[in-house]
Write the structure tokens for this entry.
Amino acid sequence: MELLSNLQKKEAKVTFDAGHLQVIDINGYQAIQENDMVICIPYLVEQNSILLRYENIPVFELINPAIQKYITVMSTVIEKHESPEDALNRGLLTEYGLKLRDFNPEIISPIFLNKGNTSRYHICILPLMNHNYEQIEPTEVEKLQMKNSNIVLNISEIKNIIIYDLISRYTLDIFKQHYSLF
């Protein structure tokens, strides 16, 4: 048995670089290297609603061309030298126009995407009262980016939506479990 003090970090060699992702070789094992992501479901408590996204996802359309838009949770790439909290704040602002006020969100300990990827998801179920945030008026460019992409879903409708990706479904299940909605 190897002692923990004797363990060494594996060295990875980049074999392909596409900018936002790399294929790496770790002693003969190939994997995808990507940045971590923050995944979030903002819960507007006083409205009894959650915020979701309605997105065109080309990768999904390749496999299932009959569906052109998918319901997803907010996901934001954590940039180098950025904390998960900073990425969460940036994502809330750019995707929903929400700016948090004196509020420390709880982000669950990160989980790996899968065995062949270095990326981890930092999941946040974010209960917000009206005094926890302000709605920022988006710029014209942001309005175009947000157009038809945000969904305000009342909790009573949560059982009626169909989710096709694993992380959105998993995060929604965490939300349902947390608020006993099963």
Remarks:
- The longest strand covers residues 120-128.
